[in-house]
Amino acid sequence: MGKRLKYCLVGKIDSSQTVIPSAADPSRPDRSRAEAEESLNYYKSKGSLHFPLCQGYEGQVGRDDKQSLYMNRFLVLLITISIVFFSFSPTKAALSFSDTLSDSRPFEVSNHEIKWTVADAGGIAEGESFTLTFASGFDTSSITVGDVDLLDDGADITLAAACGGSQASFVNNGNDTFTFTICPGGGGAIATTSVVTVRIGTNATGGVNQIISPAAGSYTVSLAGAGGYTDSSVLQVNIIGGVSTTATVTAQTGNLHIVGYASPSALIYFLENSSVIATNTANSNSYFDETINGLAGGIHTINIYARDSDNRNSVVTNINVNISSGSTVNYGPVIIAPTFSIPTTSIGRPAELNVNGKAVNNSSVEISINGSRNDGTNFSVTTDGSGSWSANINPLLHLGEKSVYFVAVDRASIKSEPSNTTNYTVVLSADLNNDGKVNDLDFDILKSKWQSRDNVAADINDDGVVNITDLSIMMYYWTT
Question: Does 104 lie in the same domain as 202?
Answer without folding.
Answer: yes
